[in-house]
Amino acid sequence: MKKILFITLMTFLHFISAGAEIFGEVKNKNKGIEFAKIVLKKNNKIITGAWSNINGKYFLTKVEPGKYQVFVTAENYFPDSIQINILSDEKKEINFSLIEKSQNLDEVVVSGTLKETFISESTVTIDVITPKLFQKNPTSNIFDALSMVNGVRPQMQCNVCSTGDIHINGMEGPYTMVMIDGMPIVSALGSVYGLMGIPNSIIQRVEIQKGPASTLYGSEAVGGLINVITKSPINAPIFSIDFFGTAYQEYNTDVSVKYKISKKLSGLFSSNVYWFDKKWDTNNDNFTDITIQKRVAGFNKFTFTHNNGKSSHLALRYYYEDRWGGEMNWTEKFRGSDSIYGESIYTNRLEVIGKSPFKILKSPFEFQYSYNHHKQNSAYGTTPFHADQKIAFGQIIKNITLNRHDILFGIANRYVYYDDNTVITAVSIDSVFHNKPTITVLPGIFIQDEWNFSERQTLLVGIRCDEHKNHGCILSPRLNYKFKINEKHTIRLGVGNGYRVVNLFSEDHAAFNGAREVVITEELKPEQSWNVNLNYSLFGTHKKGFFSLESNIFYTYFSNKIVADYFTDHNKVIFSNLNGYGINRGFGVQSHFSFDFPLKIAVGFTYVDLFIKDEDTLGNLYLRRQVQTPPFSGNFVFSYKINKWQLSFDLSGNVYSPMLLPVLPNDYRPDHSPWFSLINLQINKEWKDHYQCFIGIKNILNFIPKNPIMRPFDPFDKNVNDPVSNPYNYTFDPGYNYAPIQGIRFFAGFRIKF
Hints:
The protein has six helices and 46 strands. It has 754 residues and is mainly beta. The longest helix is centred in the N-terminal third of the chain and has 15 residues.
């Protein structure tokens, strides 16, 4: 009301005053901004001010001649300013076009501190990705979609069964913790196949922390974490469907429905079906280029709103997949035989995720819990692999605010049951191996204090202790410092310790594809790492719009690093703790540009230097690089929209530098991949915010890696000892992988949302 009276008074003064006048319009694109504040300053002192009206119009009267600065601010918009020179009795028009702040600045995140906070206020550096980015290059699951994020690289580990993991800043998959709604659901065995079963339809946003997070999340969160936040039944669409298909005859369908059970209880059901049953062999090696995959997933989330406004959540997800890859004439009757080579995997997975507030002596707490059961029945050639894993997790957290201190503490416990038919769960008794499932109980306690000791500076310190039956108390401290220079510039520094307890299946799936024997030389100890991470972020405006820049420098030192040796014996994968040390260092830059005209650009790159120094037989340290990790990787997205027709164009892609590859002795294939790029184009048409249809092309440059499989014509190594046809004793090996074996292909689809 006061603002309206002020605008009315300024209007009246405009007609009765004399002297110089300044007037104009404050707008965003072609729409006026109401209640924008315009201030006239001289020598850093406020001379006068005004508010814009409902149409974005403003005016200042009785302005004396002189040099001034005009500042304009508005809620949810970046400010702007201009210097002017006013003459006596001059009437000067000055118009402003403000840029709307990026939505990501006001996103609420929880991964960094286990408490809800805005990105701009978070002490820990968090990247937030929304499904809008993933829709610029449609994929069937979160595993493939994350290739659009700078510093994050989905890595395929096997050319036959298409297993993979996610690398953050070059660090391999076992160092990345993948969570759903803050719970460690996807880990160990599930990290290999479970990642591809998370459909994009259930995702509200994805939070990515690059750097150790063991203080809050325990083992595995060494290189970073990916937290998939699912949609809430309260704010999800009533109904949505997302379908697309490709020229390779891949088909993906996501459907979700929101429903209300009572006034306080709501539900959201979502299902995903991915169907790919077409054999392709474009490189003529008689092996499938792409693994045949049939996936079905169902997800249901309940939300109950309590009288105090807080909510309880319970989510259930079931996932089934049947996949196989191998020789083109393979059928299920050859499963496990040595007649025709194939790798076949059946996966059944059940997940339960929940959280609920409760009180003890009128003091509020929160209980968070999860459970998953992963069963896998696989055959890699003649090598069977049957695994059963159960993980139960629960933690109680409590938040206390004292003056400028925000204290969080909690107790947690993780139960892991793991059984398979390999040497991993076998014990030797009188030289006879007997099966013995591994059971790990890992209780922990943690505390952190976030101290806002000034308006611009925040310090966070925390420590965690996890009690391991074989290794005792494993401590994980961390320190994070944020200095907000002003509204545009922020510096964040993080120092932390990470650890992880090994699970060999997730270490490197190439060890279990039937081509190599697994050898464990010692009892593997938990890894330890120390990480330093320095982040600088800038948000600002330019003459034509808005821009943001974020740079990150990281350094990690490893002790007891668990390494897989592929080179000592090409028929074996030898696992052991490193006698030396490992280093992961590098830097990354990500920039965004948004213009007054409908163009948006996002460009980023990451450079990593990863190596280990191990002892040789003489005790001397020698350097070894990490395989299948490009030192340089870049990503880009160019988006242009014709508003009149609601038509948008998206060009996205990745660029990778040469990476070291696991080759055999005297291998004729290069030990490094070439520079290559995967580029995609999409055209999207919208109607009334409810309907979309899109078409596009993937892999425009038609890049396909050469010779991905060694000796595909002899997958069972029946003729490797022939000195005439095989003088170098090459063996079958499908691990020479650095890019998908999918050429250029068209795709099309539609989305409906109410």
